Every structure is written in structure tokens, then in C-alpha cells.
Automatic annotation (TrEMBL):
Database matches in SMART domains: CA, Cadherin_pro
Protein name per UniProt: Desmocollin-1
Record field: transmembrane: 637-660
Keyword Transmembrane helix on entry: yes
Keywords: Calcium, Cell adhesion, Cell junction, Cell membrane, Glycoprotein, Membrane, Repeat, Transmembrane, Transmembrane helix
Topology of this chain in the membrane: Single-pass type I membrane protein
GO biological process, one term: homophilic cell adhesion via plasma membrane adhesion molecules
Domain Cadherin: 94-191, 192-303, 304-420, 421-526, 542-629
Organism: Eudyptula minor
Cited SUPFAM superfamilies: Cadherin-like
PANTHER family in the record: DESMOCOLLIN-2, DESMOGLEIN FAMILY MEMBER
CDD domains documented for this protein: Cadherin_repeat
Length: 694
């Protein structure tokens, strides 16, 4: 770019795009790799005359150069080029002490005497401007550093050196030079957490991994400066070392063969990390790891006392009578210390119950069923205790037996009301018994005296009014006829509460269950008594019913009580309540009224009259129950027979009327040939003579 033409007195030259560098002679160089898009890439060159306060801009547009066609191998022209000097990367010690300015490298050109540089940094601190860090002597080409450099901020620099002639011409291509900042072990390693917390179950075996501590170092990776080693500095409490720390990985593992939470609940480890592979001259940092020992149920609960005594009044229910406590060395509030109580002996009738108070871990013994002083003046219970979690045997220890304790419960006597024995009495009453029938006696006793003297009985109102009880003797009688077919008695039973009152006014209650036993009060009867039997004489099925229940109903016994009819008809058993009725031999047609008696299982006889129309028919619809013939031989006509005769007569009369009407309407003429032969031969037209015929 011709700068002189634009501004002759330009003192300051700059580019709007840092990817391009402009020298005083107008040469334009790229400071980094440039990727041109399909469109033009533009930037601006700014020229300033500071004294005259003049400023001008030159707009530059770059277009991608078209690729030249490649020559064939035979057309290739070899050109000789001048060999350029490329210095190896320079090294600058991090945090160098100088003296500054510190010479880093020297660049020289055979044709130029003036040198300038442009440099860029790479690293996490590139957002900070490193200007003034390097400069080059214009005449000698010596590159100097003006101050110390932190490698963690600027790991390396790339310097582009430009060589020009006194008149501003650049005869050579810019030289790229790299300055690498050599790492100094100036950063101590540090732990990634202020406090590491781990936990491990007690009684864990040696070698079980507890956790891992981690540290980092900001120095150059994969060098001794970042090669870290871990170790345990101290352990609190200062007992036998319980844990090991892997020097390379930082993994903490169990070392002690027996960790007992009840002795030491947690350990605090002071751990150290050192770089330079742990060498004494390496930098180090310490951290803290706290390891909590988790509880396991390796301690069985034990009763504080082996014997307890308590008292309770008889007949008291749902009342707490005793609290028992245990000692458990496991962690309070955990399943390993939670107590579970049970009564293992002396509670066969389940009068007692024991539960656990979750707040105090005590066992609460309660009476859930009333106790009787007269039956037993004291009860002895045996209580056992376990934990919610299963017991885990600690290493090198023996199995412990279950802890038990005995509880003696003294029962206190209380003045009680009368007690019915039994408390529930069943009385069976036969159905339809007479009013006032004695059906039993219901007595109560005084628990203290054991007799029934001075006790009165009565039935409270509002119950089924079936029975009464004698106030003094307790005798029970019916006050109405009990019939299972009437109203409230259909259920067949009723529960009646009875009161017993002693001289002191104390009461007791009992229950009488009155059950009405079925009686034989109903006669068996045949459900259908009218039948039609056709000429096929198919047997008739007779079925009886009885309103009574077993054993006063089926099986039934059927008999024909009339001897003359018994000789003409027979009964065949079908099942318990049905039989077949059929005629014997050739019994004539007619209507028969057959007396049949049915006897139930209780011996009660029911008389029935079965009417059978033995009819000369194919289907029963052809006959009805009106008489056609009687046993004495007198023939009678039924309704259907008379109706058939009338219809036949009418049909015959209609035919005669029709014939007479046709004959009277005209005269019939018939021509008879001569050879009729007295109308005995049929006229024939055959030519040959016929045979002799009669």
C-alpha cells in the first residue's frame, strides 16, 4: 500500500484487523492464519500525523487468489531459493529474577538493518494485555523481556519479526519465533475439598475402601511439578492406625481388623499431598478427612432387671401395669438399638400384651383381657427382648443368648357382681309347645361366695317377648306359643339378656338363646290331584309337600286306602317325596277317584283324593275330566264326542243339499250304442274280434 501518497507525514500506522500488520514501507503481512470467505474480506489502515492532528484511512479489500493450474511432471521447473534461518524456540524461565531487560534471542538479516516485532500470547490470561513484555532493538535484532512471566497465565508467546532497510523496504519474509515459558514449581498442590467426609460400617474387613481424597496442582501437567503423593500425617484419636492411604491414588481403606463404633465412633485424619513425587523439597498441603463409623447390630439388648413385680385389680381391661427397660450399646434411635419385646411364657389366654415406647425404648406391659382373682391370685410372665435389625456377630466374639426377665403380676380382689355360668345359655323349645312350659333354669353366682343365695333375676324390657324367668329360682318358662311360621319367630331363635342382682345392688348379665326346634305340625299333601291318562297308560307322578322341616318331612310313604281300587292301581316309588301311579292290567276307561294317604317321616298322615280320567285318547287334550263311563259299565258321551257327532251330521246334510240342487237344474241325456250288450261290455273299436269274456 502506498502510504506516502495518502499521508506523507504519517507518524502512526495501525490496522483495524489484528490479523494484519502494516509496516512503514506499506508492506502488509498476516499475523495469523487467515481464512477468506467467498465474499471480499476488508479492513482499514489508519494513518495519523500527531503533530498536525491529521488522520486518514485506507480501505483494503482482499480477494482469494485463484489456484494456478498444476504442470505435468515433465513441465515442472525447479527454482533455486535462498535458504532461510529459522531459530529454534526460545525458553524463558517462569518467574525469572532477571536482571531485566533480559535478552531472549537475536535475529539478523543480511540485507536489512532495522527490526520490529509483533507478538501474541496463548493461555488462560490472554484477556489481559501483555503489551510491553517484549521488545526488539531496532539496529541489532536482539529480543528482550522487560519483566518476569507467570507460566500459568502465559504458557507461550509467538513473535513475528520484521526486517526493513533504512528506506522502509522489507526485503525478506517476516520470521516467526516462539518463546516458551518454562515451568517453575511455584504452585503447591491443593485439595479439591476443604473437608472430606466418609463412612464405613463397623467390623468391616481390612481392605474395604472407605473413600478417596483428591488434589490438584496448577503447574505444568505431566511433570514432576504435578506428580503428587498422599500420606496420612496423623489420626485422631491417636490409637492404633485404623486406615491406610494409597500414595498415588488417594484411596482410603480399612486397616484395623476390628472397627468398634462403641469404642470409637469417628476418626479424623490429617492427610498431606506433596508434589515432586513426594520428595522432601516438593511443595505440600494438608487436608482433613473425617470417617464416621456406622453402627451395626453387634450388641444384643439386655434387661436392666431380671425380675419385676406389679399389681392390677381384677376385671381391669386396657390398663398399663408395668414398664421395663433394657441396655443396648448400639447407636440410639437406630434399628440396631430399637427394642422389640414379646411374652414367651405365661400368656396362654392372651390376657397380656407388651409394646414398645418409641421415644424411651421401654416395654409397656398392659392387661387386655380382664383377670379373675377367684381363678388365679397371681400370674407369672416371662418376657424376652430383641432388636428391630437382625443381630450381627462381631469378629472374634461368641454368640449371646436372648435376654429374658420374669414379671410377677399380683391380682387384687374386687367386690364383683353376680356372674352367670355359663354366660351364654342355649335353650331349645319344641315348636307349638303350650304356654307356661318350663324349658330350663338360668342361675348366677357370687364370685366371692360361690353360691346363688340372695340373687334376683329379671329380663329387661324391649326384647322378644317369648319367655319369662322366675325372680328367685331362675326357672325359665314360655309365655306364648312358639310357632316358626309367625312374625318374628320365622328366624327360629332369639337372644334374650337376663340381669342378676345381688344384695348389694351389683349386677351381672347373661344371655339366653331361645331356639325353636321344628315340630311335626303340618300334614303332607299331594300338590296336584287331577290327571288325564290316555290309552298309552303312561304312569302319573304324584308329588307331596310338607310345611315341616327335617326330620318331620321326607321321606314320604304313599298308600291307596281303598282295597277295590288298590287291586286296579299300583304305586311305584320315585324318590323321597314322589311316586308313580299306574293302572294294573286291563283297567277299563273311565274316571277314578283314588284315595291316597301320605305319611311323613314323623308319622303324620295326610289323606288325599287323586282324580284320574283314564281316557281312550292319544293326547290329553282330547279328553276332559267329565265322565264317559263309570266303573259300573254305564256308557256316557263326553262333550267332544257329542260335538263331533253334530259336526258330522251337518256335513252330511250339506252334501245332500248340494246333490239335489244339481239334479233339479236340468235333464241328463245319454246316448247308448247298439252294441252295448246290456251295458255289460265296454265299447271297443278294435278290428279283430275280442275274447270271450263274462
Amino acid at each position: 500500500v502506498d502510504l506516502k501518497e495518502c499521508l506523507q507525514s504519517a507518524e502512526f500506522i495501525s490496522s483495524s484487523n489484528e490479523n494484519f500488520k502494516i509496516l512503514e514501507d506499506g508492506s502488509v503481512y498476516t499475523t495469523s492464519a487467515v481464512s477468506l470467505s467467498a465474499e471480499k474480506k476488508t479492513f482499514t489502515i489508519l494513518l495519523k500525523d500527531i503533530q498536525e492532528h491529521v488522520q486518514k484511512k485506507i480501505h483494503v479489500s482482499l480477494v482469494e487468489e485463484e489456484k494456478k493450474k498444476t504442470r505435468h511432471a515433465r513441465d515442472t521447473v525447479l527454482k533455486r531459493t535462498k535458504r532461510r534461518w529459522g531459530p529454534i524456540p526460545s525458553v524463558m524461565i517462569e518467574n525469572s529474577l532477571g536482571p531485566f531487560p533480559l535478552q531472549i534471542q537475536q535475529v539478523q538479516s543480511d540485507t536489512a538493518q532495522n527490526y520490529t516485532i509483533y507478538y501474541s500470547a496463548s493461555g488462560p490470561g490472554i484477556d489481559q494485555d501483555p503489551k510491553g513484555l517484549f521488545y526488539i532493538e531496532r539496529e541489532t535484532g536482539n529480543i528482550f523481556a522487560t519483566r518476569a512471566v507467570d507460566r500459568e497465565q502465559y504458557p507461550s508467546f509467538q513473535i513475528i519479526c520484521f526486517a526493513t532497510t533504512p528506506d522502509g523496504y522489507s526485503p525478506e519474509v517476516p520470521l516467526v519465533h516462539t518463546i516458551r515459558i518454562e515451568d517453575d514449581n511455584d504452585n503447591a498442590p491443593y485439595f479439591t475439598q476443604d473437608l472430606f467426609e466418609f463412612s464405613v460400617p463397623e467390623n468391616s474387613k481390612p481392605g474395604v475402601v472407605v473413600g478417596k481424597v483428591t488434589a490438584e496442582d496448577r503447574d505444568e501437567p505431566y511433570t514432576l511439578h504435578t506428580t503428587l503423593k498422599y500420606r496420612i500425617v496423623s489420626q485422631n484419636p491417636p490409637v492404633t492406625p485404623a486406615f491406610s492411604l494409597h500414595g498415588d491414588t488417594g484411596v482410603i481403606a480399612v486397616l484395623l481388623p476390628q472397627l468398634d463404633r462403641e469404642l470409637v465412633s469417628s476418626y479424623t485424619l490429617l492427610v498431606e499431598v506433596r508434589d515432586m513425587a513426594g520428595q522432601p523439597f516438593g511443595l505440600c498441603t494438608t487436608g482433613t478427612a473425617v470417617i464416621r463409623i456406622e453402627d451395626t447390630n453387634d450388641n444384643a439388648p439386655c434387661f436392666k432387671q431380671t425380675q419385676y413385680e406389679t399389681r392390677v385389680e381384677e376385671n381391669r381391661v386396657n390398663v398399663e401395669i408395668l414398664r421395663v427397660s433394657v441396655v443396648d450399646l448400639d447407636e440410639p434411635g437406630s434399628p440396631g438399638s430399637g427394642a422389640v419385646y414379646e411374652i414367651i411364657r405365661g400368656n396362654d389366654d392372651r390376657s397380656f400384651e407388651i409394646t414398645t415406647d418409641k421415644n424411651t425404648n421401654e416395654g409397656i406391659l398392659c392387661v387386655v383381657k380382664g383377670l379373675d382373682y377367684e381363678s388365679a391370685k397371681q400370674r407369672i410372665l416371662v418376657i424376652a427382648v430383641n432388636n428391630e435389625a437382625p443381630y450381627m456377630l462381631a469378629p472374634h466374639s461368641q454368640q449371646l443368648s436372648q435376654s429374658t426377665s420374669s414379671v410377677t403380676v399380683h391380682i387384687l380382689d374386687v367386690d364383683e357382681g353376680p356372674v352367670f355360668k355359663p354366660c351364654h345359655l342355649r335353650l331349645d323349645v319344641k315348636e307349638c309347645e303350650e304356654v307356661g312350659t318350663s324349658i330350663g333354669r338360668y342361675l348366677a353366682e357370687d364370685p366371692e361366695t360361690g353360691n346363688s343365695e340372695g340373687i334376683c333375676y329379671r329380663i329387661p324390657p324391649g326384647q322378644c317377648n317369648w319367655i319369662s324367668i322366675d325372680e328367685k329360682s331362675g326357672e325359665v318358662r314360655t309365655i306364648k306359643v312358639l310357632d316358626r311360621d309367625l312374625g318374628e319367630m320365622r328366624q327360629g331363635q332369639c337372644n334374650i339378656t337376663v340381669l342378676a342382682i345381688d344384695r348389694n345392688g351389683k349386677t351381672g348379665t347373661g344371655t339366653i338363646q331361645v331356639v325353636i326346634q321344628p315340630g311335626n305340625k303340618n300334614y303332607p299333601r299331594i300338590t296336584k290331584t287331577d290327571y288325564i291318562m290316555c290309552r298309552d297308560r303312561k304312569p302319573i307322578c304324584l308329588t307331596a309337600q310338607d310345611g315341616d322341616e327335617s326330620p318331620y318331612s321326607t321321606p314320604f310313604v304313599y298308600r291307596i286306602t281303598d282295597r277295590s281300587l288298590a287291586s286296579m292301581w299300583k304305586i311305584t316309588r320315585h324318590n323321597d317325596n314322589s311316586v308313580y301311579l299306574s293302572p294294573k292290567g286291563d283297567t277299563p276307561f273311565g274316571i277314578y277317584n283314588i284315595p291316597v294317604s301320605v305319611i311323613d317321616n314323623g308319622g303324620k298322615v295326610g289323606e288325599n283324593l287323586v282324580k284320574v280320567n283314564l281316557c281312550d285318547c292319544v293326547t290329553p287334550t282330547e279328553c276332559d275330566i267329565n265322565p264317559r263311563s263309570d266303573p259300573n259299565g254305564n256308557v256316557t258321551l263326553g262333550v267332544w264326542a257329542i260335538l263331533a257327532m253334530i259336526l258330522g251330521s251337518l256335513l252330511l246334510l250339506l252334501i245332500l243339499i248340494t246333490i239335489c240342487g244339481c239334479c233339479g237344474s236340468g235333464v241328463m241325456h245319454r246316448h247308448v250304442t247298439d252294441d252295448c250288450a246290456n251295458h255289460n261290455l265296454i265299447i271297443s273299436n278294435t278290428e279283430a274280434p275280442g275274447e270271450e269274456v263274462m
